[in-house]
Amino acid sequence: MKTKILFTTFMLLMAYLAYGQEEEEHPIDQALEECMNTPEGSTTIGMIGCMQEAEEAWDKELNRAYKQLRSIMSAEEKTSLLTAQRAWLAYRDAEFSFNGDYHGNMQGTMWGIVGKNRRMNIVKARALELNDYYLTRTEP
What distance, in Å, lies between the first and last C-alpha atoms of the chain? Predict the structure, then answer.
């Protein structure tokens, strides 16, 4: 019963993330949603695979945003960004490790999905944050 409630809660959260946003959905999120809506994407392994693809896409987006942001910064700002990015990478690695240990010790296959979703969202948040820094300086 507890697993059923948790699964229902997870699915409602996923539905909110997919449909409850007022802003235009990012193409990576659209691709994730499309992947999850396929027959393969509706299985536990399929969902994890879809989220893995999205995490990799967000990592590429993060690297693109980092390079773009550096292109408009002073030397001092670049040094500060490098320091911040190294600290974020240490946080990411530690969080990924904790996330794997934590969700890996929970009963039920849905926790693999929850853990993978958490990893993806960590990378997504940083990519969006770096992009926001860039837009703050370049948009009127």
Answer: 53
